Amino acid sequence: MQQDNNLALPVGITLDRFIMRQQEAFPYATGELSQLLRDIALASKIINREINRAGLIDITGALGRENVQGESQQKLDVIANIRFIRALINGGQVVGILSEEDDEIIQTGNLNAKYVVAMDPLDGSSNIDVNVSIGTIFSIYRRVSPIGTPATKEDFLQGGRKQIAAGYILYGSSTIMVYTTGKGVNGFTYENSLGEYFLSHAEMQMPKDGKIYSVNEAYFDEFDNPIKEFIQEMRQEAGCMARYIGSLVGDFHRNLLKGGIYLYPPTRKAQNGKLRLFYECYPLAFVIEQAGGKATDGQKDILDIAPTEVHQRSMAYLGSDCLIDKLGNKIMEHHESVIKQLANI
């Protein structure tokens, strides 16, 4: 009797197995980073469960207080922060955590651990009330402080090029974890019934060009002229479209897959930009560069920005190669024009 191969199709490579295979490719790897990535994945599974219960239990809405960024904390912000901190403490591989929700570095007590983690536990959490995609962003560094001592600011103030791993989890129509260790970008989709992440997007590559621009156009009048000109040209180009949902991870993930550009220019209220350098700009810049895209603040690559404080903010332009170059040329031309005008005064 001929066997129907469709009756037992393979389910694919699990995240744990993929991490193990990656570790085997490095003869001196000792497993700590692999375990750390598993700890992040575990916490994300718990957050996924909590999000799926939103509306059934009282976990949506504002908590009634602000975080260190001056933003209203949502209940799910606090829940996600606690879940990730617990997972990283119990995993034992992290000595210090920098979170968007906490003013100071969180000391885990794991003094012999080799790594520190910067994270936005739940980006876009206000969107949970209306069932819009939200996400987690994380960045991992090897500590520079002596083993056996608490984490210090210097462990984080190393600069974006010193990241050894970074990624994000998108909680949407499905939950997907995307990360890089500097050897390309891979995405894993969560299978709820099995409780496992499976490799679904291998060796992700961002299209070199794109037709999507993501920006909060409500601030258009506050943008600098080169940004306005760029947006106006995108509006007029055939096939181009605006896509912005106010959830950084959701907008970023769509553009990574389809090609496009995400813009967060300075505004009157945020003249240095609004996005957080450590747990938004650096990790997403690492991911996008590994996928063949670019990330800039308008003057230099985001990964080359020298950090000065742990909760530092930055403007950010993340996108396809051609679009970032086009925007960069406009900014440069505007800068040169201003210099010429000043020289003629």
TrEMBL record:
<dbReference type="InterPro" id="IPR000146">
    <property type="entry name" value="FBPase_class-1"/>
</dbReference>
<dbReference type="InterPro" id="IPR033391">
    <property type="entry name" value="FBPase_N"/>
</dbReference>
<feature type="binding site">
    <location>
        <position position="274"/>
    </location>
    <ligand>
        <name>substrate</name>
    </ligand>
</feature>
<dbReference type="InterPro" id="IPR044015">
    <property type="entry name" value="FBPase_C_dom"/>
</dbReference>
<dbReference type="GO" id="GO:0006094">
    <property type="term" value="P:gluconeogenesis"/>
</dbReference>
<dbReference type="InterPro" id="IPR028343">
    <property type="entry name" value="FBPtase"/>
</dbReference>
<comment type="pathway">
    <text>Carbohydrate biosynthesis.</text>
</comment>
<feature type="domain" description="Fructose-1-6-bisphosphatase class 1 C-terminal">
    <location>
        <begin position="206"/>
        <end position="327"/>
    </location>
</feature>
<comment type="similarity">
    <text>Belongs to the FBPase class 1 family.</text>
</comment>
<comment type="subunit">
    <text>Homotetramer.</text>
</comment>
<keyword id="KW-0460">Magnesium</keyword>
<feature type="binding site">
    <location>
        <begin position="262"/>
        <end position="264"/>
    </location>
    <ligand>
        <name>substrate</name>
    </ligand>
</feature>
<protein>
    <recommendedName>
        <fullName>Fructose-1,6-bisphosphatase class 1</fullName>
        <ecNumber>3.1.3.11</ecNumber>
    </recommendedName>
</protein>
<feature type="binding site">
    <location>
        <position position="122"/>
    </location>
    <ligand>
        <name>Mg(2+) 1</name>
    </ligand>
</feature>
<feature type="binding site">
    <location>
        <position position="280"/>
    </location>
    <ligand>
        <name>Mg(2+) 2</name>
    </ligand>
</feature>
<dbReference type="GO" id="GO:0005986">
    <property type="term" value="P:sucrose biosynthetic process"/>
</dbReference>
<feature type="binding site">
    <location>
        <position position="120"/>
    </location>
    <ligand>
        <name>Mg(2+) 2</name>
    </ligand>
</feature>
<keyword id="KW-0119">Carbohydrate metabolism</keyword>
<dbReference type="GO" id="GO:0006000">
    <property type="term" value="P:fructose metabolic process"/>
</dbReference>
<dbReference type="GO" id="GO:0000287">
    <property type="term" value="F:magnesium ion binding"/>
</dbReference>
<feature type="binding site">
    <location>
        <begin position="123"/>
        <end position="126"/>
    </location>
    <ligand>
        <name>substrate</name>
    </ligand>
</feature>
<dbReference type="Pfam" id="PF00316">
    <property type="entry name" value="FBPase"/>
</dbReference>
<dbReference type="GO" id="GO:0030388">
    <property type="term" value="P:fructose 1,6-bisphosphate metabolic process"/>
</dbReference>
<feature type="binding site">
    <location>
        <position position="216"/>
    </location>
    <ligand>
        <name>substrate</name>
    </ligand>
</feature>
<feature type="binding site">
    <location>
        <position position="120"/>
    </location>
    <ligand>
        <name>Mg(2+) 1</name>
    </ligand>
</feature>
<dbReference type="GO" id="GO:0042132">
    <property type="term" value="F:fructose 1,6-bisphosphate 1-phosphatase activity"/>
</dbReference>
<dbReference type="GO" id="GO:0005829">
    <property type="term" value="C:cytosol"/>
</dbReference>
<keyword id="KW-0479">Metal-binding</keyword>
<keyword id="KW-0378">Hydrolase</keyword>
<feature type="binding site">
    <location>
        <position position="244"/>
    </location>
    <ligand>
        <name>substrate</name>
    </ligand>
</feature>
<feature type="binding site">
    <location>
        <position position="123"/>
    </location>
    <ligand>
        <name>Mg(2+) 2</name>
    </ligand>
</feature>
<dbReference type="GO" id="GO:0006002">
    <property type="term" value="P:fructose 6-phosphate metabolic process"/>
</dbReference>
<keyword id="KW-0963">Cytoplasm</keyword>
<feature type="binding site">
    <location>
        <position position="100"/>
    </location>
    <ligand>
        <name>Mg(2+) 1</name>
    </ligand>
</feature>
<dbReference type="Pfam" id="PF18913">
    <property type="entry name" value="FBPase_C"/>
</dbReference>
<feature type="domain" description="Fructose-1-6-bisphosphatase class I N-terminal">
    <location>
        <begin position="13"/>
        <end position="201"/>
    </location>
</feature>
